[in-house]
Amino acid sequence: MTHIATENYKTQARAATRNIVLQGALAGLQERLGKGTALAYQDLPEGPDLRYKAHDIRMHAINNLDVLLKQLAEKIRSQGGHVFFAVDGKSAAAYCLDIARKHHVKLVVKGKSMVTEEIRLNDALTNEGIDVYETDLGEYIIQLAGEHPSHILAPAIHKTREDIGRLFSEKLNISYTDDPPSLTKAAKTALREKFFAADMGISGCNLACAETGHITTVSNEGNIRMSSTMPKIHMVFMGMERIVDSLKDHNILLRMLCRGASAQKLATYVSHISGPAPTDHLDGPEAFHLVILDNGRSRILADKNFREMLCCVRCGACLNVCPVYRKIGGHAYGYAYSGPVGAVVTPLLIGINRAKHLCQGETLCGACKDICPVNIDLPRMLLELRWKLASGDPQWHVRRENRLEKAVYQGWSHLTRNRRLYDLSLWATKLLQKMLPKRSSMIAWMPPPLNGWTDSRHMKPIAKTSFSKKWKQHKLDSR
Amino acid sequence: MDQSNQDTFLKKLKRALVDVSENLRNTASSVTPGERDDHQTTLEHIQQRAANDRLALLERMITESRAINLEVVPVKDLDAAGEHIQQLVITKQPERGAAKQVVAWKHPLLESLNLEKRLKEISIPIFFTEFENHEEKALLREKIASAFIGVTSADFCLADSATIVLKTRPGQARSVSLAPSIHVAVVLLEQIIADLNELYALLKYDPAHHTEGLTRCMTFITGPSKTADIEAMMVYGVHGPREVHLYVITG
Hints:
Chain A is α/β, with parallel strands linked by helices. Helix content of chain A is about 50%, strand content about 10%. Chain A is elongated. Chain B is globular and about 70 Å long.
């Protein structure tokens, strides 16, 4: 799989719908997490409407992003940490490599981070001859298999225990087992020595707080704590939008994040990290680096129609309820971000034309908005993207995707405003439809390009007597 | 670092936000004076909490702990806690290697547990995380890596989510609650507070905590380490401890 594979959406999606194992796994995931999250909101002491408050908190942070990031950077520096502002993925990776070279880093352990996936940090490090180990169990499995994650929170959801058993017996040199606890133990044993030997730990950042000057990492396995405790250097990659103003806001956001991600009150481990460990501490990193990444986000920030997208905390809740994701899985989306969040954020980051299938594939059912812990209006933005694809947009460099579509709709518009022409075309269509094959008085097949309607369902033919004729008749009769 | 880099970066964001109205761009403080009073009330509420209310919080914590596989054990006094830990050391088996070895925070509360003496009785070595020089530091880190039980205290516990809150300080190493396969924490009943609201109010408005700050790393631990990454099957004990035991001294 190449880095950006959004063009393959349709083929990938088709393959996924035929993969019985994947279909079972996706359904199970949604039944468990999607429903669990909805219940977890009901259990909030403040009630489920806290989602609206959380939205306001996020918008407040986004509206003041420049000020808050400056405050965060100053605080972190005053606590002995380093902060680097990276305009794009390339400069972020270059900064990381520069620090790695200076400290002769040979081995890196990583906590799960979608941002590093976005900027292909692993490739940059590997090309430099540095060994990189993903340490989240799901990510580790994916890395061993040479694949990419298919879910923000459950990256290996598409793999069976037998797949993983075969993979581990081949790559870790252990005898085959498909027992999840034994497999977990094998991964743990393999990674434990890496944690202690690593020169650098890399993690993402679930939240940052300007008031205190700390970043927050959240995990259930403990791998992020390991990565941020054992190695001499801890480097954090943060999407620039991932900040809140104060501890008061952090309280609400953290609770909403854990509920959205995995229906938990709090994840097993939540660390508030604000700088390197002082020398009189026994452990913790000697150096702490925070990389704050733009990589196309400032363009989203500048457009008030899409600014709301920066409220996203990448919890993955929308994946767990989306009827489209449930069928096609994460790989079809062809980029680091899948599901409804991917359908909006990927086009905005890599180009709307390039990722057109993503926003066109969603159903606009609104489940994503209802489950979002910060109540982001994803359906509105999906429509906004489709509008741009239909009519073109110079600001986002969108070229009109389908000239024929526009022409057809213009023709339709003309037709419906001209009575005679409309009646004439109805008459012609009625004649033509007689030639089409029927099944229980429904049209069973239409020629291309109209077969999209009849490939998977039958269509009702146009009625013998039109509504307007019936209406006139009705008026006459009742006189 | 590179100041000019930062300035350009932030200027770009400022330009992007040019259409945001002035009243949405006041970040001087998101806390209004009224909210500050709220926090004062919260602090007083915590400090003046009646003994019964404290026990009710403990009950709530025990109820919450069941779902996450955390072991919360109320004990009368420090001596009883020490006794329990001694029993754990005797009955539990190490996950890695055959030799039993214990590490513990250098912490006033833990000193009163007489762990050194108790473990000497059963000839099991215990190491406390204090050091004089670089060699001792390196040696201790090895001891933590090979220990099967790590003993800590905590700053607070949150009843609402059954969470243990630990700040790092000299003598209070992060890895004691992380690297061994069993984590034991000992706290006093009054260290249990209701929830995150109360914790953040304390961190912000309690003078001692406010001055100290979050320390460089403040960690919440809510049960043992776990994963569901293989076919959604829950497995305890991945990179962190597979068991967590919390002893609450009720007095």
